[in-house]
Each structure stands twice: as C-alpha cells, then as structure tokens.
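Session log. Operator J.P. requested a structure for one protein chain; no other inputs attached. Running the standard single-chain path with token output.
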Amino acid sequence: MLIRITEQLDRKLLHRLNRRTIPSFAQLRYILKILTPRETKTLLASVSIVFVALVLLGGRFWLRVTIPVPAVGGSYTEGLIGSPRFINPVLAQGSDADRDLTALVFSGILKNTSDGTLEPDLAESIVVSDDQKVYTVRLREKLTWHDGEPLTIDDVLYTIKTIKDPAVKSPVRASFAGVETDRIDDKTISFTLKEPFPSFRSALTVGIIPEHVWYSIPSAQAQLAEVNLKPIGSGPFRFRSITKDSNGSIRNIALARNDSYYGTLPFIKELLFKFYGDVPTAVEALKNKNVEGLGFVTLEYQTELAALKTISLLELNLAQYNALFFNPERNDALKDKGVRKALTISIDRDRIIREILGDNAVTVDAPIIPGFTETNDIVVPYDVEQAKKLLEESGWKFPAATSTTRFNKDAALAIELTTIDQPQNENALELVKESWESIGVATTIRTIVKEKIKKEVIEPRAYQVLLFGQIINSAQDTYAFWHSSQNRHPGNNLAPFANKDIDASLEQIRNASDPALVPGLYEKFVQKLAEEQFAIFLYSPNYLYPISKKIHGVASTFRITTPADRFATISSWYIATKRRLK
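Structure written below.
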C-alpha cells in the first residue's frame, strides 16, 4: 500500500514540474515503465491495430494507383515427343522436337507472325524488283551470335550455300533450287530467281547458321557434327546445357534467355525441355507436374487435360487440311469422276468432326490457306441416296438381292484406305469405311507407322486412297501440292491426276505479280478442283496445346503453320510481374 501511495505522489510531482499535455519523445521512452501491465497490453494492441490499418490502407492505395506488368524472371518446362537430333535449321525437318528448338535458337531473314503473315526478322528491309525475280535484303545493324561474334551477310551466303550442297542433304534444298545469291555489301544480299515465285518469301524464314562455327566441318560430316546438339544461333534463347542418361539418350535440354537479342527481349529466363518416347508417357508427366506443358498431344486426351486445374488447354488454328487423296494409278475405278463424286458425298464429315475429333476441327470444302478461306460457291453435300444413283449411272450395280458389294462387268467395287497408324486417323477411316460400305463399296483399311509412311507409301505413291494432312503457307504454295508436274517424288501432289485448266490456274497464281489478282485466280482453281473431285476435303484440325496457367501473355487463339509457330509470340510470355504507376 505504501509503495502505491509513493508512486502516486511521484506522478503528481512530475506533473507539477512539467505541465505539457503531450509527452516529449524523451518521455515516451519511459512510457512502458510507468504504465500498468494492463495499460501496456492495451497500448500495444492499439498500436498494432493502427499499424495494420495503415498497411492495409497503403496497400489498397498502391493497388489503386498501379497496375501489374510483366517482369523478367521464371522458368518454364515443356515435354516434347521424340528426341532431338538436328537443332540446326539446315537439317531440322525430320521431327517436331528439332523444329521446336530450332525456332527458339535461330533466326531467319523473315519470321512467321501469330496471324499467319510474314515480317522482317534479321532483315531490316526487303525490296522486290518489278519483275518479281530479285529480292534484295538488307540486314539489321549490330547483329551478333550467341557467342558474341558478329552476324554478317557472309553468314547468310554460307547458309544458302550449305543448303544447296547435295552432300549436306538439306530437306529445304528444293526451296533454293535455281536461286542465285550475290553479296552487294557487308549488310546487303540479293536473291535472283529464274521465274517469279511469290511464295519464295516463305523460304526466307529458314534460320541462318554461323559460318565461323561450321566452315571447318566437311559437308559429308554435317549430320554427325556435335554442334547439331549444342547449337550457336542468334534467336531469343541460347543453348545452355544438355543432359543424357546412361544409355546416351537425351533427357533434357536447357535454353537461357539471350540478353543480347536484337528483337524484343523475352521475359522468361529459362526454358527446359524434357523428351518422351510417346504421348501417354508425356501426358502422365504433365499430370504429375514433371512438366508444365506439352508440345504435342492427341485429341483423345482433350477431356482429361481440360480437367486439370493448373493447365490451360489452348486450341490453335492450324493452317492444315486433312483430305482423302485419290490415286487412279492404283485403282481403275477411281478414274471415273462419277465414282469419285459418289464416294465424296456419301461421307458425313460433320459426324467425323463430332465423334472422332470432339468438335476440335472445322469442315473444309477446298484447300485451306491462311487468308484465302473463302470458297464462295463450293459446298460439298452429304447425300447417300444421290451417291447410290451416281454409282448406278457409272455401271456399278448389285448382282443379286443379297449382295452388299457392287460389281460391273469386270470386277467388284473395292477400295483400300491408307493412313498413319494414329488413333485419330484410324477412327476417322472407320467412319469412312462405314459410309462407303453403306453404298456398296467393299472397303479395307491399311495403317502404316509414321516413320515408314513417307518412304514406303508417299514417295512411290503406293496407295489407292490416302488420308493425309497438308500444311500450306500461302496461295502460291498450292502449285507444289496440286500441279501435275508435282505428281512424282519429290513433288507433293498426292492426287496424281492431270488437268490442263487446273495447271494453268496454278501457274497464274504462282507467277502473279499483283497480289490483288490472287484471290480471283485461287477461286477459279478451287472451282475446277471441286468439279474434278481429285480429293475429298474433310476438315481443318485445331492444334491442342496444354500449358501451365502460370504462363501469362500466351494468345488463346492464333494461326500456326507448323507446331513450332506456337513460339512466335514467346517474347510476350511472362511468369514474374511487378507493379508500376498507371
């Protein structure tokens, strides 16, 4: 009791000595010594509440006056099917893994954009002569390779020379056949064509390789060079490391942001690619979060992947049409236009898209080309009864009431369908078979492994009807796929017919100097192609691309020519963010 009375007297004395109502800072230092425990707790709680309130108010104010923006940082891991062999644009055409990595490491004179057009990449400018035969290219200033060496016009000349060298066996050699190159100065080169060929611009997207790295490697040894797997390019990402297992198989390849990139610098610091032998294994890796995206996935996994909460399943528009190509050289019945038309209109293409493709495609009635999708009067009907009539008119009848296969005076109407052994293709052909057998056509299906389809089937044209997909970059590219001069390997015409009107239209399209004339010429071509019915155009598929939701800035829909084009906008992708004032 005596102690408390003493403390009260002390307080009164202090108050008389200093009558200020607001304590000084020096006095505040002793506040906890003069407060009771209860008062101390109350004070500390009050200060904490005020502090938290100020933080919250400050945070809200900061969020009001700022916006999130992309920041440099983060890594992304993607799974690819297959194993890379040539991360080299001169050789990289054999696998999607090669093309994907090449697209990130190397740069071309031109590049594809997200809307399917071309724009300058290494080029500062491109001037085309009035006769459309000479392309004069001037390079950007201060271009460098990933190792710091300057990229010059000599590297461009060396790349084209390497592509044209027969000993190198470049898959893109045909694109530069008959093309002459001339060095004008340190920054300028000209390409001279024998004839006008507007789609030559697409050939200029091929990546340029460094002369100082490759000049000492003999042409015949190019495919064996170590630099194919440890590339030096000039693209937005540079090679960092490669990891192999005990058997020598490649497991991982890491790419790092190229801080010296001449274009828009990417935000993502690192890309890691893991390689898998098949789609099911890769899908499991995605589900187990061993990878954050997949470069390729088949439609059968669409529902399963769409249910993953951490994954965005993008549907990219692929500039591809899938068609059934008739080969009359392997089946005489296909020489009859009436038979070809009957086979065409007996197929319910909407059912294929609905049941086999999960509505992940659109029907097409002619070759689909970016920017040239209008075919005003081309409509392919689905009419089973009319198909039966057409076969009757062509002399194919049922010999007996119990027969299910049509005959003429010489043979039965029987057709073999061929395709790659992929579930999507096989299931689509099962519906085609069902449709054709419903009109009396005996139908069989032959599937070929992907690795053998080119050599054993396409090059020798060893098929009666082939289900296959073709990708076209521009209207002028239709020449390579439909002109009769391309009926034999290495040509790409898979429907080996000959029609002078179609050939004439394609030649006019290919040589058109005025782009405004192309749509009209193209319309004339597809009208004649529809009339002759050299192929059955089925659908244009979407490209499914599962990618982690942590990756921002990826366009939800855009047109790609090849799967590697999904990286066309990679400089806009980001993971990390920061805030800046509005």
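Operator note: The two ends are 64 Å apart (CA to CA).
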